[in-house]
Automatic annotation (TrEMBL):
Name assigned to this protein: ATP-dependent exoDNAse (Exonuclease V), alpha subunit, helicase superfamily I
Keywords: ATP-binding, Exonuclease, Helicase, Hydrolase, Nuclease, Nucleotide-binding
Region Disordered, annotated ranges: 1-77, 249-273
InterPro entries: P-loop_NTPase, RecD2-like_HHH
Electron transport among keywords: no
Gene3D superfamilies noted in UniProt: 2.30.30.940, P-loop containing nucleotide triphosphate hydrolases (3.40.50.300)
Tagged with keyword Metal-binding: no
SUPFAM superfamilies cross-referenced by the UniProt entry: P-loop containing nucleoside triphosphate hydrolases
Top-level division of the source organism's lineage: Bacteria
Domain ATP-dependent RecD2 DNA helicase-like helix-hairpin-helix residue range list: 77-161
Compositional bias annotation for Pro residues: 55-66
Biased composition (Low complexity): 25-39, 262-273
Length: 664
């Protein structure tokens, strides 16, 4: 196995040769183990991918909770857990994750416990030793298979949709798998892991390959991934390729195909509020897929596009990542030139659109009943949600993915917006509208790797140096409760604290405890919460909804989330609700507040990147306070560490499917 993988990495063999001892010529383009696709313009629109169970799980469906809220089969699972020394509290999650045969599955393969969120390898090993006794060995094939899937799921939490084979081999060695190469061979043979090879860019200075040189080597990388993310990424690439080929760019003097003609689009472009908005309108007139980038002020440009398209009779909508983003978008739509009185209703959230709770609904074929969709905050789209969204668009629709390229990527796996931009397979409109004021000037500099001092006569930007984490917490509470309300006129409930992580002496837990004590003291009578507490509600992974506790009763914890009532069942409060005076930058992405207090304690500098700083510093509309204990780590991160790398396949897939001249 080691020789085979290294042979592919060096260019001597193809990924397909893992299953064939005969040598094979390496293809020049990125490939995946799938049949050749039909031409893009002939490919039918596939159903949106559903989340697949992790490798190794039984195929049985997840059982629904019974009348008492207990998952069927939990009783049998408790007996197995008790025999293995695992806590009975895992019974529900195990039954929900592994299905109706959960108890039997655990007896046959104790390491399937790793499929349950939160279970670590050492815990699964202890459970297996208790059940198997002397038969439990580090090299057990079942252990290797479970650990391979667990490592790839962990990688997905860090944004990767696949891992390079060498990276996964090293990770298996670190969790004491005796023969990582044999483990990978088994995982591939069992179908738990898929193998891909992607072409790499030629190194600088390399001699260009001649067109007739069939034997010339092209560098490739071997990737291993779970089918769940592979299917989502390939489905997304197919759908984006379909949209990129929807409209053929017109020749001189010809009208764009689809919908209004050239004169109507040109008239709308001429009425656009800015030159960048006009450029966006003209580009969308001729193309089915467009990437648009810019800062906060540039959000008005897709809003102007949607308003113009609606004025032309198209069913046009705009979707934002958060409810706060939707409200700001609705305001921009209402203010756009020529907007109809109902324009604000065209602003939706991505989650609401996919759930059919907002927007136009679906047609008889199950596609969204629209002609144009502009997705703002596009960097927040993970690959699975993006695939579901794009696959839901009808044939002939136009799609604009718009976002700020400087912000953090999605909380889930993938780098959809960045890969689309890097692939250069659709037109790209870069806004020339700068963000105003001292905060805009500061953030713009950070975006190009410069941490500049800015003039802030109105105290728009304030730096508060601190020596340690304890002082950072003290000064943060002081800023939120006293200084910002008094000096800036922004009340505490409109100020958001942002810090790098949940743990640590100045993480969200410590800061929220201190802020609750000062701003809303109470005994935490409802599962640690009191009426009036600010909270962060997480209805789905990667999606954070700010809210306020109203009350609690037998049904659960009652929240007010931006005017919408939400009831969180008692059994889910501990998992889905946190205090929300302080958030991480990932949780805050896609939303803005009148004031932001960014906390940079000295013990949290290891994870700082330019993207994190850019995101955190740009969350305040009128005021930004920086509680600064990071010393030289802050300017170093801005100048030298743009972002955390993610291993994905979307860029290569798009470049393989969409002709290079399609951006014309």
């Amino acid at each position: 196995m080691a020789a085979a993988v290294r042979a592919v990495e060096s260019g001597e063999r193809s990924a397909a040769s893992f299953f064939n001892d005969a040598p094979a010529r390496r293809p020049a383009a990125p490939t995946a183990p799938a049949a050749p696709a039909a031409p893009v313009h002939e490919r039918p629109r596939a159903a949106a991918p559903a989340a697949a169970p992790a490798p190794g799980r039984p195929p049985s469906a997840r059982p629904a909770p019974g009348p008492g809220g207990e998952i069927p089969g939990s009783g049998d699972v408790r007996q197995v857990l008790a025999a293995g020394g695992a806590p009975e509290s895992l019974a529900g999650p195990v039954a929900e994750t592994l299905g109706e045969r959960a108890a039997e599955a655990l007896r046959e393969d104790p390491w399937q416990l790793l499929a349950v969120p939160g279970v670590r390898p050492d815990q699964a090993d202890g459970f297996a030793r208790a059940l198997l006794g002397p038969a439990c060995e580090p090299g057990d094939e079942r252990r290797a298979l479970a650990l391979t899937g667990w490592l790839l799921e962990r990688a997905a939490l860090e944004g990767h949709t696949a891992l390079e084979s060498s990276t996964l081999r090293d990770a298996l060695a670190k969790v004491s798998v005796p023969d990582p190469d044999e483990a990978l061979r088994t995982a591939i043979a069992e179908g738990a892991v898929l193998v891909f090879q992607d072409a790499l860019d030629a190194p600088p200075g390399a001699r260009p390959q001649a067109a007739d040189d069939e034997d010339a080597e092209q560098p490739v990388r071997v990737l291993l991934g779970l089918d769940r993310y592979a299917l989502a990424e390939e489905s997304l690439a197919d759908a984006l390729a379909r949209m990129a080929s929807t409209f053929v760019p017109p020749q001189d003097g010809e009208a764009p195909t689809g919908g209004p003609g050239a004169p109507e689009w040109e008239s709308s472009a001429a009425a656009a509020p800015t030159a960048s908005a006009a450029e966006l309108v003209r580009t969308v007139a001729a193309h089915g897929l467009v990437a648009h980038s810019g800062g906060e002020a540039a959000r008005a440009e897709p809003a102007a596009l949607v308003a113009a398209a609606r004025a032309l009779g198209l069913r046009a909508y705009a979707a934002a990542h958060s409810e706060d983003g939707r409200r700001r978008l609705a305001a921009s739509l209402g203010e756009a030139p020529g907007a109809d009185p109902e324009a604000a209703s065209a602003a939706v959230t991505v989650a609401g659109l996919l759930a059919d709770a907002e927007g136009p609904g679906r047609d008889e074929e199950g596609a969204l009943a629209l002609d144009l969709l502009a997705v703002l905050d596009a960097p927040q789209l993970d690959v699975e949600r993006a695939a579901m969204l794009v696959e839901s668009l009808p044939d002939g629709a136009r799609l604009v993915l718009s976002g700020d390229p400087g912000v953090l990527g999605s909380a889930g796996p993938g780098r959809v917006f960045a890969d689309l931009v890097a692939a250069r397979r659709c037109p790209q409109v870069v806004s020339r509208t700068p963000d105003p004021g001292p905060i805009g000037e500061l953030v713009s500099g950070i975006g190009i790797g410069e941490l500049n001092q800015v003039e802030a006569p109105g105290k728009e930007v304030v730096i508060v140096p601190v020596r340690d984490a304890g002082e950072a917490v003290h000064r943060t509470v002081q800023l939120v409760a006293d200084s910002v309300p008094r000096a800036i006129g922004i009340p505490a409930e409109q100020t958001q604290v942002i810090t790098p992580g949940h743990g640590g002496a100045a993480g969200t837990r410590a800061l929220n405890a201190a802020l609750k004590t000062r701003l809303n003291p109470g005994p935490g009578q409802f599962g640690g919460f009191d009426p009036g507490d600010r909270v962060a509600y997480t209805p789905a992974p990667g999606r954070t909804v700010p809210g306020t506790v109203v009350s609690a009763d037998a049904e659960g914890l009652r929240l007010d989330c931006a005017g919408s009532p939400v009831v969180v069942p008692r059994t889910e409060v501990g998992e889905l609700v946190r205090h929300g005076w302080a958030l991480t930058a990932h949780q805050a992405a896609g939303a803005r507040w009148p004031a932001a207090v960014v906390v940079l304690p000295g013990d949290a500098t290891a994870g700082l990147t330019r993207a994190w700083i850019y995101t955190a510093f740009s969350r305040g509309e009128r005021h930004l306070s920086v509680v600064h204990g990071a010393e030289g780590a802050l300017p170093r991160a801005v100048a030298e560490i743009p972002f955390k790398e993610r291993t994905t396949r979307l860029r290569a897939l798009l470049q393989a499917q969409v002709p290079a001249g399609s951006t014309a």
